[in-house]
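Q: How would the structure tokens look for this protein?
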Amino acid sequence: MKVILIGPAYPLRGGIANFNESLAIAFIKNSIETTIVSYYYQYPRFLFPGESQTVEGKPTYLLKIKPLISSINPWSWFKTARYLSQESPDMVIVQFWLPYMAPALGSILRLFRGRNTKVIGVMHNVFPHEKRLADKILTRYFISACQGFVCLSKSVLLQLEHLTSNPNKIFVPHPIYDIFGDKVSKAEARKYLGLSPSDKVLLFFGIIRKYKGLELLLRALATDRLKNLGIKLIVAGEFYEDKRHYFQLVEQLGISQQVIFTDRFIPNDEVKYYFCAADMVVQPYLSATQSGVTQVAYNFERPMLVTNVGGLSEIVFDKRTGYVTEVNPDAIALAIEDFYVNNREEEMSANVLAEQYRFSWHAMVDSLLQLGDSIKK
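A: Here is the predicted structure in token form.
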């Protein structure tokens, strides 16, 4: 069997690239010939406010990666379709996360039209968090070129139901990210980051955008419930909006001694130190579908606090593997207070470990193969 995955991969960085590469590794472990067709040009500058779209250093795994696609060059779409035709794979699996990519991806699939190839879209999002006027039109252009869909949260599946009557669509939870190295002790991780072994440490991880709710967490930290507990918050990730707003807010709230900003993209070989140093990972999102950060936390056996939006509550079990709170600072503060005052870390960490089996890459591969088998050409 031969599978081609379309989506970003090394040296491109980010969660979708991590997902695509992890999926490729899982297919290869199942003795399935797998190639990634990636981008040589992904985003124009206005859509990528980060410092760089690529990572430095060598890849963790040696995968067959073909950087054929430009998001803005139609000639590359023809070339990619021709490559797919030459390879004649049994299955093409396309990562979809942003309507901006729909013209390129939808056109490639229409130009290809492989007679015996099943085409499946992996829907990370149906609509983006920052919505634009043409989102629905562009997304429909992509989904109408696919024969089946895997959605990574039930909320995404529900959104997809409104755009297509295609019956070949299933929900499979986002698997655990296991590509960031082995777990290290909390003492080793805190030594690496320059933190005290006795500190109470929360982690907010990933790019900073408004919808991720960092402001809620900062305001929670400044409440009467938490301000005397000696909590430190690590904010680790690049700002994709004006960072001055957050720096000024920290000063206004009087919590500058409690908040540690690591304003940069965290490379893969450092991720384990941030998660292993934390007592709990906090994702106070204003809106969400699902989150790869949650699955990194599962990998490192860290309790999580999430807000009750999108698919986050499908992954975190309230008061077992963490907390699911309402979207406001007081609710977040109440959960954090309970976590520390009642010493919940050990119990919740054990529960996280017990739930890991639900989120395997093996299950994702099996689901994709079964979906492919159910699609009639």
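The domain at 2-175+360-374 is CATH 3.40.50.11930 (Rossmann fold).

The first strand starts at residue 2 and ends at 6.

Upvote if useful.
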